[in-house]
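request received
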Amino acid sequence: MVNAWLVATIVAVVAGVVGFFTLLRGNAFAAHAIPNGSFAGAAWASLVSVNPLIGLGLFSAGSAVTIGWLSRRGRRDVATALMLTFMLGLGSLLLKLAAVNGPLVYSLLFGEVLGISNNQVLPTICLTVVCLLAVGLLYRPLLLSTVLPEAGRAGGISGTLMEFLFLGLLALVTTMTVPVVGTLLIFSLTIGAPSAARAFTDRPSRAILLSVLLALVTVWIAIAAAYWTNYPIGFFVGAISAVSYLAGRLWTARRRQLSPAHW
Amino acid sequence: MTGAAAVFAPGFFSSAPVHTALALGSVVAIVCGIVGVFTVIRGQAFAGEALSDIGAAGGSASFLAGVAPVWGFLAASLAAAAAMEMIGVQRARGRDLATGIVLGTSLGLAALFLYLDSTQQTGSGTTVTILFGSLFALSPSLIPGVAALSLIAAGAVCVLQRPLMLSSLSADLAAVRGIRIRLLGVGYLAALAVAVALAALTIGAILGTALLVGPAAAALRLTRRPGLAMLASAALGVLAIWIGVLLAYDSYLWPDPGWPVSFFVVALVFLFYLGSGLLGPRRSGQREQGSR
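response:
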């Protein structure tokens, strides 16, 4: 239980930060697809019995690179959708070959926070440090190339490079988040909190802080609720994310009503 | 004869589950191929993906209620299409986000329903059946219902083909010509929801998008003519289903028996898409429209 709190807290911080950029770049679909790619990785890890984190890392990085590469030569949403379903299909095959039973498939897809073991905590902390360092280093160029791609290019920032780096970042987050909330629901965590945060403030630094805060609240409530009710944690993460998105929408609508001149 | 026996494992042509799988799979692939062309042109692959994941919530709920999953898929997809329309899927800005939120919420619901399914002892394989499909396990009694739904969805899209194409390519021009874009968009989303529900039934709720988007995207790379693209896309979909069913049936004789049909279908669709990129006409360095 202590492990669960610790890991979930770390995960929420990173998801809040990276989610903000996901939203700004309008890349919600990739944030949905890369975790699904890692599903095959987890399946592969259980087939050849290595540490799941290795499988998750390899496959999410692989799908990030493939999505980035394919979307340069075709429609981005089509490439993402096909990559996503292919990786899920591959995952179902590998699980079948590994003779894995239904409950494990379920916990991979929807998460099982209470099943986090001691030897998963340290790698997660290391990945977090790498991830936050990367965001810290990339903060200005990433923000610039997201908001004003032309200005970024004029300043010598390659849009393609940034896209790949960003997808890589998503892969990193995926690797650490999957064991907690599962492949399918990381997505709620990475876009629910940031979408609400962005409705409340326009300043990037403040929005990131708020988004981390909301993600933390989401995860904590979800863990507590899952613990008390015995229902899956993913359900609570999804529901709370939807509520915070709606709150953001209402707030925006109200603000717009109060000061029409501002808009 | 030995050659044929190597390709078609014994009993392939006389197996009843294979017949049902081929019949249902072909019908669904044709609908998905036709509807999918517009999904790709309108850039709604993410919406298709969301609708199909939402179908997972419906499918798992239908197990709880004790009705056939196809009705659960259908009801959930239609409801979600309405919800996405309401919170603003039609506007490009914020569209990803609205889709994503609906998607996330419904996956949460799917998690809950599947959990309840497993506690209610409806069988341990529910998760896998709903999410990844099992074409060989479908009952022949579904054929009339599926055929009727297919006819409605594919028929509507074929009849509305011209205004739909115009409003997909240039909404302003369509509005000038007196086409009611919003209504058309809603109608299209409903047809999409039906197609997605059928795809979820055949290859599983979280894999359904592949059948919808893959053959269509491949066909659109091979030809720019809409009618031809719809035909090609339906043909590619049917081909993926047939080869997938055959390989899955053969796989029972392999060292690791029983590979899932859905895996073969999805992998074939992915291959078709990659292959079409190599075969398709080159457009002098110009990137395909809509790639933002």
